[in-house]
Amino acid sequence: MSTTSHSTVMLRRNVKHIARNPTSVFNAVLMPIVIMLMFVYMMGDAFDVGVDYIDYATPGLMLLAVCYGLGAAATSVNSDMTKGIINRFKVMDVSRGAVLTGHVVASVLTNLIAIAALVGVAFALGFSPAASFLDWLGVLGILLLLAFAAGWLTVALGLAAKSPETAGMASVPLVMLPFFSSAIVPADKMGPGLREFAEYQPFTPIIETVRGLLDGTPDGTDAIVAIAWCAGIALVGYLWARSTFTKRA
Amino acid sequence: MTTTAIAVSGLRKAYGDRTVLDGIDLEVQAGTVFALLGPNGAGKTTTVNVLTTLMKADGGTVLVAGHDIATEAKAVRAAIGVTGQFAAVDDLLTGRENLRLMVDLQGGGKQVVDDLLERFDLVESADKPASTYSGGMRRKLDLAMTLVGDPRIIFLDEPTTGLDPRSRRTMWAIVRELVADGVTIFLTTQYLEEADQLADRIAVLDQGRLVAQGTADDLKRQIPGTHVRLRFTTVAELDAAARVLTDATRDDEALALRVPSDGGTTSLRAVLDRLDEYALSADEFSVHTPDLDDVFLALTGHHTEVAAK
Q: Where, subcellularly, is it found (chain A) (predicted)?
């Protein structure tokens, strides 16, 4: 059988896993919405960002939605590894890539559902982007790229971790990163040190790209930096995942 | 039929500077059961991992189903089925879905799934998640999943460790059925009884080397049979008893004597009468059937590090 059909079988399996695990659905889909409600209703009025806070925060929260889905992916890859299921697939005549691709694609799909739900709630809260159809396509593209890159990195983290618990912990930095970016408040309002970190970490250019697209004023430089970060993360994640997968028995 | 299913020569494997397999040679004829017997840490699982292409060997050649594991891993994988030491079933899927997953990956139809559920007596729980299964059921499901592709060579790594006696017997019956169908079985075990019950040939693995190889009868000739164990309170008593029971072997450390016996009442009475005659009394008296530890003591001169239960 071909890699594609093996990947489809694996994807179907991973989607079943996610659907049967209410905690992971909650974390991936509801948590970003809860955080959105928290920031927009509780704290939004306290931040002066020059525009409606919901318009400012939505792009960053979209990235947060991607990150919140990763914990589940790390845990499920790791439990496959530690419970011997991956070894079962390895000694079958199953394409090596399919197992990992299945996890990455399932993670990307969860992210898309979470983003769709989040954007739906944002519109209900008065989100009014100025983006054209093409801009929206750009947003979708960059988010897919991020979801794909972060998915590979998470799969690698999950494979390398000793237990499902540590795998869950390993994805925490990815969940925290958006908070230390321009997602919630502009980087130039942060204290020294943190401000520089926020300006140069990968999430800021990605968020600024999405923000620009949604405003209808896309910024080419941000986009190039964002795409470069995503490509780099994807490559590192992919290579790391492949080598861990081959080595660990 | 006398074709060779598995041929291993000079197999070596080390983790860093710790040698785990130190030159293993063995041959398994097609359609037979081969048991690799050894205590925990002897290298049994490593051997299975190497033979099933999960790990790369550091030296030696291995042919499985006529294919070299180093250069034709894909062909080897297509020919074998592996059930590892811990049931590799998907807990979130039901029994039926687990089997379905194997069918989707390897080909076959709905009939294969139904037949296997029937054969392994899993029909009733087929639609419950595997996480609710007992240890014995998980092993059965695991083995059923292994059988989906109808492999002709099956590796079973400690298939009954941790199972209750009833599940163990069920597992043995399944292995016998497979052999009757002409399947070759390579199993590892730490139970002498299991190897004795199932295997045509047994190899004893100790610290990465094979210390004995042959049929169960060959091995039994080399190890002490059933014997009576007498434990004494003092060395003086032990000495006195050893002089009286001349065919006994001494274990000075435990202040014990082992006296060959068939375990029957006549021979037991004879031993006791002899002690009585010299007014000797043992502190403890037990009838002992040989276990893995005896095999090791006989073949290697040392006990297993982790005593077999």
A: Cell membrane; Membrane
